[in-house]
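User:
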Amino acid sequence: PDQGLPHFIGVGYVDDQLGGYYDSHRRQAVPRAPWMRRVEKDDPHFWVWNTQKALNHELRFREDLLDLWQQNNRTRGTYTLQRMYGCAVREGEQKAGFEQYGYNGRDFISFDKDTLTWTAAAAAAQVTKRRLDAELVRSRSLKAYLEEECLEWLRKFLEYGAGALLRKEPPVVKVTRTAAEGGLETLLCRAHGFYPKEIDATWRKEGDVWEEGTFRGLVSPNADGTYYTWLSVTIDPKDRGRYRCHVEHDGLLQPLDLTVEEESGSSVGPIAGAVLGAVAAVVLLMTGLILYIKRRLRSGYGKASASDLGSESSLRECQSVAE
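Assistant: Predicted structure:
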């Protein structure tokens, strides 16, 4: 009943770039970004080491997910456990690290590295919180990892992928118009081909930000790794000349203010990026699921080694089991 889906998936991101991937079908950690292959020059065993680590996480997640199921639902269905952890370097060298878990698509428990305690986001997490709060040695080790080792890897990854991660490509922006009901018209401002993802696009009426009647699309990825978005506003046609689409982006030398049928050119060109002034983050996400659990589910499976909930990884990373 697993519909061919892997029971365990692990991915590693640097900012919005997928760097590495593992699943319970492949059973091998592999690079997904071309620049991630550079790590092999410094550490030829990097992917072998990550494969073994992912295999251990997969086994540990199975036990954790089964424990949570026994403590709570004990009914047939699909259950998931997610672990997400990582670190970030922000402008001014501010450092941030985090580790958190989700159960069945909802927040479950998270680590506070300043107080070395865990915060339960659901009543079902209280048992786990008490167990983890008592493990001070593990909490200190996790804090050290998030504030030291994780940041060291982040800096290395930024060196490997500087060309892709720190590039700045300006948006191409165009404003068009279409007729709307009641004698009105809709202005549509489209921006595409930009990187990084962060962009500030607003309608301006005679220089002032205008939100009335404005609709916005999500900032979505293109196949080439850039992004696109849009926003529209419904207006009285006689006021058309008073509206401008205002766009600010790190790839632009200066903000754009465009009216109907105006289009920004691509002559601005990409601008080399810098670490300062931006957020660089490495995030690892693992997801496991148990499909159609029944009471005899433990039969046929060996017990996993020390669980993450109570040892090195806290809630046990991710896994899945099906009868």
